[in-house]
Amino acid sequence: MRAGLVLEDRGEVNAETGRRVNPNKVYGARRVDMLEVWHRRGVISTAGFTAAEKLRDAFEGTQRGPGWPENDRVQSSPKPDHAVTIQVDRISRYAKLAAYVTREDWPIVEACVLDGRTPAAIRGFRGKGYQTGLVALHDALDRMACAMGS
């Protein structure tokens, strides 16, 4: 539950100094998207970041329900075929994007992009191998972006 959380000071910003004043030592936690952090730090390229976001968005789309109708009033009784069609379209979009990931790259892409974990979640990239895992993630996302044509 604490994976991806960043602890930070909560408090007011002093207008004179511009520093955050936290006399009560109150801390807050917020969830951070590691793909954005890695992109900002230059660990992954812009093309790889864009490809990873497309894949993650498609995956998350398969986890959602069919959604609400356009208006609040029900015009007719709902037909189950529509919900199935929507879900099939979402799964097809995800399957199409997932096909761009090679078999060798799948473990690192699944862990870091779909599950929101770090390369340390994979056995070979723990401890001293963490930097090697980041390089493997960079290369995997670049290969995926190249295969997508972006």
* Radius of gyration over all CA atoms, rounded: 21 Å
Q: Can you write the helix and strand succession as a string?
A: EEEEHHHHH
The count of β-strands is 4
Strand-pairing-aware structural class? mainly alpha
Largest sheet: 2 strands, antiparallel
Share of residues in helices? 40-55%
The helix tally amounts to 5
Q: How many domains would you count in the coordinates? A: 2
Shape: globular
Distance between the termini: 34 Å
Strand content: 5-15%
Compute the average pLDDT. Answer: 84
Low-confidence blocks of residues: none
- What is the spatial order of strands in the main beta sheet? 1-4
Region (Disordered): 60-80
What does the model show?
This protein is mainly alpha-helical. The chain has 2 domains: 1-32, no CATH class; 33-66 and 86-150, no CATH class. 48% of the residues lie in helices and 9% in strands. It has 5 helices and 4 strands; from the N terminus they run E-E-E-E-H-H-H-H-H. It has helices at 34-41, 46-62, 80-98, 106-114, 130-148; strands at 5-9, 12-13, 20-21, 27-31. The strands form 2 sheets. A two-stranded antiparallel sheet has the order 1-4. Strands 2-3 form a two-stranded antiparallel sheet. Strand 2 and strand 3 (20-21) form a beta hairpin. Helix 2 packs antiparallel against helix 3 and helix 2 packs across helix 5 (130-148). The longest helix is centred in the middle third of the chain and has 19 residues, at 80-98. The chain is globular. It starts with a strand and ends with a helix. The model has no long low-confidence stretch (mean pLDDT 84).
